[in-house]
Amino acid sequence: MIIVLLGPPGAGKGTQASKISETLSIPHIATGDIFREAVKKGTELGRKAKEYMERGELVPDEIVNGIVKERISEPDCSNGFILDGYPRTLNQAKALDEMLAEMNRKIDIVLNISVSEDNVVKRLSNRRVCKRCGAIYHLITNPPKREGMCDKCGGELYQREDDREEVIRNRLSVYRKQTEPIIKYYEEKALLIDIDGNREIEEVWDQIKRAIEGRR
Ligand code: AMP
Fold first, then answer.
1. CA diameter of the chain
2. Stated pTM of the model
3. Which residue's CA lies nearest to atom 10 of ligand 1?
4. Is 36 a catalytic residue?
5. Out of 69, 122, 160, 199, which one is annotated catalytic?
């Protein structure tokens, strides 16, 4: 199955994508994670992406499209994959359709996780991420068992630089302007299913499971 997850920053895409990935045994491809890894390693890609990410702006389409094309051509994607944080512009959505058409494949379902702006700010400012395995926590609603330490791998938890309030506001405005138009694009293709992301993690997961079952 090829699944696209849409939704503003803080909608819970990463958390839910991990669950889908485990349940369906398909890779979770998060363009944000790919960029953060590249920044950490100091690669050419990392150097290019860093300035955009720090401001909460989008990395140019041609860079992102190239990376996704390479990644989804890898053998572990042959049974499907979940895209989290991509596409983020109409241009990326169209590029993805072209890549998939070349591979004789197509998107099965687009899950649009909506969440209120108040919740986004609350969630992102309390979000902590594991440096080692990328697991996501929320200090109040989903805290780690031991402060500062990942339950899954014992790695150190940190706050993403772009999870500071002023950057969060900019990311939200970028989302509204550049990413929201994609919702209509997928609606017209009858691929879109709305998910209420304001609920608890397990309740959101129930909605997603039902949506996926309905398409299988
Ligand atoms: P995320 O982890 O999805 O919130 O992404 C973090 C940052 O990486 C974004 O604010 C962008 O700067 C960059 N990024 C991730 N995915 C994309 C994409 N599909 N297009 C452009 N920039 C992206």
1. 47
2. 0.93
3. 56
4. no
5. 160
Q: Is 169 a catalytic residue?
A: no
The 3-state DSSP class for residue 91 equals helix
What mean pLDDT do residues 178-200 have? Answer: 96
* Residue 171 falls in the annotated catalytic set: yes
- pLDDT tens digit sequence for 37-48: 999 999 999 999
Q: Exposed (0-12), middle (13-18) or buried (19+): which is 210, by Cβ within 10 Å?
A: exposed
Assigned CATH for 2-116+180-215: 3.40.50.300
> Cα 88 from chain centroid?
10
Tokens coding 65: 């499209």
Q: Active-site residue 146, yes or no?
A: no
CA angle (80, 18, 48) in 5-degree steps: 85
Please state, in angstroms and as integers, the Cα–Cα distance from residue 3 to each residue in 26, 41, 52, 202, following that order: 10, 28, 26, 19
Q: Whose CA is nearest to atom 12 of ligand 1?
A: 53
Exposure string for 125-136, b = 16+ CB within 10 A, e = fewer: ebbbbbeeebbb
Q: Which atom of ligand 1 is nearest to the CA of 171?
A: 10
Per-residue pLDDT, averaged over 41-67, amounts to 95
Cβ contact 127:99 at 8 Å:
no
For the CA of 57, the nearest atom of ligand 1 = 12
